[in-house]
Design goal:
With 267 residues, this protein is of the alpha+beta class. Helices cover 28% and strands 22% of the residues. Helix 1 runs parallel beside helix 7 (196-215). It binds a DNA duplex (14 and 14 nucleotides) through helix 5.
DNA sequence: AATATTGTTCAGCA
DNA sequence: GTGCTGAACAATAT
């Protein structure tokens, strides 16, 4: 689930717990998530240094260091999270990497499935370029004009387009459904069939849905009653807006929830 | 006990 | 070359 709002909450969590503390050692399951560096290499790189600050682009979290100019990169795949803890008996299950601080605390990078990424990079901008990532949809610079530029000459279905990180970065399966539900757009609508009003509504709902999710700690259980995401997987849930039956289909291979009454097929 | 789930990458096709 | 779609990947919960 770690999409933009989840990663933003993890970023703030790290900011409020693990900055400016000397790193004593690092343990890492090298086979699973470490990329381009060994467990020992990572330990050697970070030991004696400390986390200085954080940045986020899409679903990637970047951590700057106080002594070294390189950055630590974390991607949380589908099931990743961070847990800051002190006592050894509190060590979380499925901890793949542990940053151990001299004050006795640990920051755990936790993940049940192993689709994640932990690496060291020289600079954030170069990494974003190299991965061909589109603009971060939560940043100030992501204006309606920018959004329209991203969609220019696109012909695919709107849902996979919103989820394509090389077009725009941050939206995943769950929030794509939420954005299109709030905007009243059928998920398989072709991008080139959207009119100006529909494009603008989608743009506004990107901003609105992500901000609302962040304001609620990316916890679906606390989202407003008008939201669709808390109802995912609930077999007999009805549409929060019209009380009609919610549909569950596959779009481009991904599980998709929508309301056939509120989100009409075009044409 | 099959099946659904999540994000990214990549094969295959237009 | 380029864009689009869907399969594959790991491991758990149901």
């Amino acid at each position: 689930v770690p999409e933009l709002p989840d990663v933003e909450i993890l970023r703030r969590y790290l900011d409020s717990t693990a900055l400016h503390q000397e790193i004593e050692s690092v343990q890492a399951d090298a086979d699973s998530v470490l990329k381009g560096i060994s467990s020992q290499g990572l330990g050697k790189k970070l030991s004696g240094d400390s986390f200085q600050g954080t940045r986020r682009h899409g679903k990637f979290l970047f951590i700057s260091l106080e002594k070294d100019s390189d950055w630590l990169v974390l991607h949380f795949g589908m099931t990743g999270s961070l847990i800051y803890y002190k006592l050894a008996e509190k060590e979380p299950e499925y901890q793949l990497v542990s940053f151990n601080f001299t004050n006795g605390y640990h920051l755990a990078y936790v993940m049940t499935r192993k689709f994640g990424e932990v690496r060291i990079i020289p600079d954030v901008f170069g990494f974003i370029e190299e991965r061909k990532m589109g603009p971060d949809v939560y940043s100030q610079g992501f204006t309606f004009e920018e959004f329209k530029k991203c969609l220019a000459k696109r012909h695919g279905m709107v849902k996979p387009t919103l989820m394509n990180q090389s077009i725009m970065a941050g939206i995943g399966n769950v929030y794509a459904d939420e954005i299109l539900f709030q905007a009243g757009i059928y998920p398989e609508t072709k991008v080139n069939q959207l009119n100006q009003a529909e494009l603008h509504e989608i743009y506004q709902q990107i901003k609105n849905v992500l901000q609302t999710a962040i304001d609620h700690q990316a916890d679906p259980n606390s989202y407003p009653d008008s939201f669709l995401s808390p109802l995912r997987g609930d077999q007999d849930a009805n549409c929060p807006r019209c009380d009609g039956k919610l549909e569950h289909i596959k779009v481009s291979g991904r599980s998709t929830y929508y309301c056939s009454n509120c989100q009409k097929k075009p044409g």
